[in-house]
Specification:
single chain; 618 residues; alpha+beta; two-stranded antiparallel ribbon; 26 helices; 14% strand
């Protein structure tokens, strides 16, 4: 995503946020425990060098979604049908074919005429695979026609369009050749290792380089030369040269307490390094600095989206592509000290099969894997932990992704707020009122009487009577997830300063950097907006909103919200930039999947040595 802030006020302030002094408990989002050697002295060594000592980890990584995030296009890596296959989308024809050992597509180019383009890289692997072609100016662009790599029995093994319900003309900002779909800017840093975008504003061109084509060891651990030197010198005690070390205290583990149904963490809690590292790609975020900084906390280098309308439902469930982090921060598991590798193997990305095995590691099966708990037949799909606690949505046409907020079902909120609930997701012939009544019969009224932050956020979005007071109380409630409270800060800035100011000022002193970031960034945007108004710019509808910049799309200049008004005629001006970024995200142009699904397609990728240049093809 692109950081947008005319005047750069929010950017300058956000860059120093985590250095602000504050009282309170230690923050979970800590800086990586970097090696004592500096980042500037380290260089990349490549996965093959890492595998010399870390063979088991390398074996698990090979064939993972990280390993296969990008591959050179060849007979081993291309999954799609290139045997002169043809696909038509609203009259626009694409023909996929091979010539010698190379793969090509004949399709509508940026000028609207048919042209041949060579496929240079594959992009992703399961449940779909996209294809990158090279355009002038060093640009790599993913085609909007993708290959459904699922088995034929699941509806796969076919070409499909990522915008199936509407024509996308060559001069549309959503056309595959447009800047909105550009790999260098939108996707590259989460699909490659050691990336330099290399954009030259004067030439309006990229000379993008990377160290490894996929997401390899040093994408997470940082450049490894100092660590390799330490190991080859005998690996003595002290500084091991690792820039990011994920090793946790051996005494920290999950353990069942007699008589308790849920395990407790014994020993020190996780530092937050792992979650912050994963968040760099597994979150909906803007990048505040191009150069990767493994020695900095996530919030020093990125600006994550909050529970914004069109991204999340009012109660925080996933709505658009948000990539896990913002959901997980809402969970009781995160609050209890769970981190990514408690469920996912950090190298293969897999979870135990079936997933209930992973759940039973902390939740006693004899308590939770019973009809008394889930109220369904034990051998039914509805008895799965995932169905009720991690419901899925489908993105990019075929990609089912699960909500990582791991929430307790609240069908009463579905009835009250109109948000989805897992009951009616399965029982599609029933309504929210039925689901709420069944929940009342099963669990009694205690659950529905518990206040939920979704009610305050829903009221804030609607500017309902009493909403400001509810948001003020939510900001002050330190028991609530920080991302929820930060979202309340954002919503409060649309209300009267007389009501909101005390809570907003407290947010500046909050121990959690998410609240400080949102408060300062939004204040900066408000000042930039008011300056535009004084200079004769548009005033907009809400205090603190900034008129989005204009972007170039195809052969025409298009206001950022213009193309969306015809697709989202009911959207408010302040949500159009978000809605547009959603539509761009659905192309898969910058997303990384959460991990391999059962039955994932695994191919052995061919690897190119050394550095890569998108502009020159080396």
């Amino acid at each position: 995503m692109i950081f947008r802030n005319p005047g750069l006020v929010g950017l300058a302030l956000a860059c120093v946020l985590t250095g602000c002094g504050s009282a309170g408990e230690p923050e979970r989002e800590a800086a990586p425990a970097a090696a004592h050697a500096s980042l500037s002295s380290a260089s990349f060594v490549g996965v093959d060098v890492c595998a010399e000592c870390h063979a088991p980890e390398a074996r698990r990584w090979r064939g993972s979604h990280h390993d296969l995030a990008m591959q050179v296009a060849n007979a081993e890596t291309v999954l799609g049908d290139f045997a002169d296959a043809r696909f038509s989308h609203f009259g626009s024809l694409a023909r996929f074919f091979r010539r010698d050992d190379h793969f090509f597509v004949e399709t509508e180019g940026a000028d609207g005429s048919l042209a041949e383009f060579e496929i240079v890289y594959t992009f992703g692997v399961d449940p779909l695979q996209q294809y990158l072609v090279r355009l002038p100016g060093g640009r790599l662009q993913p085609l909007s026609t993708a290959w459904d790599s699922r088995p034929r029995a699941q509806g796969g093994q076919r070409w499909f369009h990522l915008y199936p319900d509407e024509p996308i003309a060559h001069d549309d900002v959503l056309h595959w050749s447009s800047r909105v779909q550009n790999w260098n800017q939108m996707c590259a840093d989460c699909h490659s290792t050691g990336l330099r975008k290399g954009y030259d504003p004067a030439a309006d061109a990229y000379d993008t380089t990377w160290q490894e084509l996929d997401v390899a060891c040093e994408a997470c651990h940082g450049p490894g030369s100092n660590h390799v030197a330490w190991a080859r010198a005998g690996g003595g005690p002290g500084d091991d040269g690792l820039l990011v070390d994920f090793v946790t205290d051996a005494s920290s583990r999950w353990q069942f307490v007699p008589g308790e149904p849920i395990a407790e963490r014994r020993g020190p809690p996780p530092s937050g390094i792992e979650l912050g590292t994963c968040a760099r790609c597994h979150s909906r975020r803007s990048v505040l600095r191009e150069t990767a900084a493994w020695d900095k906390p996530f919030l020093d280098t990125h600006r994550p989206a909050l529970l914004d309308e069109t991204l999340y439902t009012a109660d925080g469930q996933i709505q658009d592509e948000v990539y896990v982090w913002g959901s997980f921060l809402q969970s009781r598991m995160f609050a209890a000290g769970v981190t990514c590798s408690d469920c996912h193997d950090p190298h293969s990305l897999a979870v135990a099969e079936p997933p209930e095995v992973t759940c039973a590691g902390c939740h006693r099966a004899e308590v939770y894997a019973t009809p008394e708990h889930h109220h369904h037949a034990s051998d039914s799909a509805a008895a799965s932990c995932l169905g009720c606690h991690m419901p899925a949505r489908t993105y990019m046409g075929v990609d089912s992704r699960r909500d990582h907020s791991l929430r307790v079902p609240r069908p009463d909120l579905g009835e009250k707020l109109g948000v989805p609930d897992p009951c009616t997701m399965c029982h599609t012939d029933r309504g929210a009122a039925w689901a709420a009544e069944m929940a009342l019969q099963w669990w009694g009224g205690e659950r529905r009487q518990r206040p939920h932050y979704g009610e305050a956020l829903h009221a804030g979005r609607a500017r309902a009577p009493g909403a400001a007071g509810a948001l003020v109380r939510l900001v002050a409630d330190s028991r609530q997830p920080a991302i929820v409270r930060a979202t309340a800060v954002r919503l409060l800035q649309g209300f009267s300063p007389a009501v909101a100011a005390p809570a907003l000022e407290r947010a500046l002193r909050d121990p959690d950097p998410l609240l400080r970031m949102r408060r300062i960034a939004r204040s900066g945007e408000g000042r930039a907006h008011r300056s535009r108004a004084r200079l004769g710019g548009r005033t907009g509808r809400a205090v603190g909103r900034v008129e989005p910049p204009r972007i170039r799309g195809g052969a025409r200049r298009v206001p950022q919200g213009a193309a969306l008004r015809r697709r989202h005629p009911g959207s408010a001006p302040e949500s159009r930039s978000v809605a547009r970024s959603q539509r761009r995200a659905r192309t898969g142009a910058h997303g990384v999947r959460d991990g391999p699904a059962p039955g994932s397609v695994v191919r052995a990728g061919l690897r190119e040595p050394g550095r890569y240049r998108a502009a020159s093809g080396r």
